Amino acid sequence: MSVDALADAYRPSEDEEFMNPRQREYFRNKLEAWKDEILRESRETLENLQEESTNHPDMADRASSESDRALELRTRDRQRKLIAKIDAAIKRLDDGTYGYCEETGEPIGLARLDARPIATLSLEAQEMHERREKVYRDD
Prior knowledge:
mainly alpha
């Protein structure tokens, strides 16, 4: 089995020390791969937008094309913000704070980090934050 295959087979476990070097490498690779995928999709979108800049003679086709373009641009804007969060997570990996809740300082939990590698709050802190947000929204 190759080194890459072994690395691909690795999954962080609760049985090991939290944020040990192997876990940090796992999450760094996961974050960098996610970022690369977003950047690749963005380049494809730009290419598609440049190719689609043809003038549609039919008003319905033109409206549909403009609607598709607006949706695509909104999606790209959300992904641009996501890249900033990914970069912030990588910075936390570098400074040793990755994986720890910003509010409590407790470990976030491997399952949560695996599902949402940009998480900055533990599940409990996130739920409290959302409850507070809902209370303020209802006022």
